[in-house]
Amino acid sequence: MQNEKLSYAFLKEDIEKQERRSNFLHFETFRANIKRVPIASKFWSKYDSKVEVLDEKKHQDYLQKIEKSITEIPKDKYTEPIVESHVYGWKTPFLNYDARDTELLFHPRYNSDITRVGERIASEKDTERQKFAGIPFKLT
Description:
Helix content: 40-55%
Main location: other
Keywords: Cell projection, Cytoplasm, Cytoskeleton
Shape: flat
Pfam family, one: FAM183
Subcellular location: Cell projection, Cilium; Cytoplasm, Cytoskeleton
Family: Belongs to the CFAP144 family.
Mean pLDDT: 74
Low-confidence stretches: none
Largest sheet: none
């Protein structure tokens, strides 16, 4: 008898936890994400197909926002690049390339504390190998 009550109590607690966690999945309203391009219109969806009261002006504004969000590129949306990938092509200065200019082929070496230490370590290394004096053990 006590075992049955105990198992029922555990079951009840488990069900209550599941209900608490799953409540956020039951939405009463739906708001379309206009920043995302829809894959296809869903004729079976209650949000896409049924229109109870259609305000023509709001509908046209909504369609214009969707069209604008699809056609707009980041350069049109923002004044400065937001992420690093925006930098390419955002503000590209005109490059007047002259093939006879040899300074473009010269890349100066930048020295910092770390590079100086690395150069000192590289210069102190013994790069020459000793001559091979034969096998140091006897083969039988």
